[in-house]
């Protein structure tokens, strides 16, 4: 009753490999690009009409098709709601996390948007996987690591201070020592955001421990770039650092 059945059938047939040979070699990519709009039109109550097509596209041999889905999976999650997202999208999302960098960047750019839609227990499972984003197929792909730091600044609000200290702190310190200055600079902002997270939640002991680690790792570094990193962190987060210095020394 929403759209004519023949029109829906034509859309679903776009995943047929024969169509790629006779109609358009990128027809599957066009299908993937349009899928969130079709899902929105049909509504979540009719998701069963698209589920098999979506899974077919998610396993397509062309990375461009999978990349298209990866960039829009957070939008589809909003359309489907938390239950259908957990049941049908999370497994595909997990597959994209292990895909090529060209596909992974799609989920990385909207990582916060997707994770915030999950229940807290399911969201916490991804703490163990965030470290994997530091490693890329091409180490010269510094924009991937830059995007990771930007997303982590947003993601901080989704986790409690202990989880931030146990998992995200290590990633931040690694990014602060990146070979590319742009990555290091955004990572300094991430470090300050972590300190502000501790301060806002009254986790002063964690904040002091983190500052001590920054002092040992950067302030007393044998390399000038490490000592420079500490100076930049102080510049970016003067208020947070002054607060913790006051707590420690009075």
Kindly describe this structure.
- This protein has 250 residues and is an all-alpha fold.
- The chain has two domains: 1-118, Leucine-rich Repeat Variant; 128-249, no CATH class.
- Helices cover 74% and strands 0% of the residues.
- The chain is built from 14 helices and no strands.
- Helix 3 (27-42) crosses helix 5 and helix 12 (204-219) packs antiparallel against helix 13 (224-236).
- The longest helix is centred in the N-terminal third of the chain and has 35 residues, at 63-97.
- The relative contact order is 0.06.
- The model has no long low-confidence stretch (mean pLDDT 89).
Lay out the secondary structure.
Elements: H1 5-12, H2 17-22, H3 27-42, H4 48-58, H5 63-97, H6 101-109, H7 111-115, H8 120-124, H9 142-155, H10 161-176, H11 181-200, H12 204-219, H13 224-236, H14 238-249
InterPro entries: ARM-like, ARM-type_fold, PP2A_Regulatory_Subunit_A
Keywords: Membrane, Repeat, Transmembrane, Transmembrane helix
Protein name: PP4R1 phosphatase
Task: Give me some keywords for this one.
elongated; Leucine-rich Repeat Variant; mainly alpha; 2 domains; 250 residues
